[in-house]
Amino acid sequence: MQHRKQTLITLLFAGILSLATAQAMAKDDAHHHHDGGASAGLSLNNGAKWKTDAPLREGMKNIRNVLEPQLPAIHNNKLKPAQYQTLAGEINAELSAIVKSCKLDKEADAMLHLVLADIIEGVDALAGENKQVGRHEGAVKIYKGLENYGAYFAHPNWQPMTHGE
Predict the structure, then answer these.
(1) Does residue 73 sit within a domain?
(2) Residue 162 covered by a domain
(3) CATH label of the domain that carries residue 108
(4) At what angle do helices 81-101 and 2-28 cross, to 10 degrees?
């Protein structure tokens, strides 16, 4: 739990520093538009997806691979609290690896922090630590964060998740 809090504090600190950059870029981007599914402030890099590095691609692929098989159970309200807790721990471990190893330029990093903020909020909800957001809604936040990642970041062979019914 302490390691998770340290990761969150690191991400939040870096996010605060980079949020100003992201907001300035969004204002300066003549092609910036708001998409109902995108988090406020997300934009492309002059019409192109942001570059990624191997640790980011690996971590995001792993988060996707951890969440996707659970989507049918989540959708059908079959996941138990302990299973949500396990899912949160697995995703948090990937977030920690991303924070430790990912090295993006400052503009791409600022955009990434917007995506990761949604995923972190979702992980907190999965773990039962966010009383305003339920566990199911936490999974939805992570799902949407992964969709935004695929829409805004260059990740060869990235596959959108299939939504289990």
Answers:
(1) yes
(2) no
(3) 1.20.1420
(4) 60
The model's pTM: 0.75
Q: What is the pLDDT along the chain (165 residues), one digit of tens a residue?
A: 544 554 444 444 444 333 333 333 333 333 333 333 445 689 999 999 999 999 999 999 999 999 999 999 999 999 999 999 999 999 999 999 999 998 999 999 999 999 999 999 999 999 999 888 889 999 999 999 999 999 999 999 998 887 654
Distance of alpha carbon 6 from alpha carbon 144, whole angstroms: 24
Number of CB atoms found within 10 A of residue 154's CB: 14
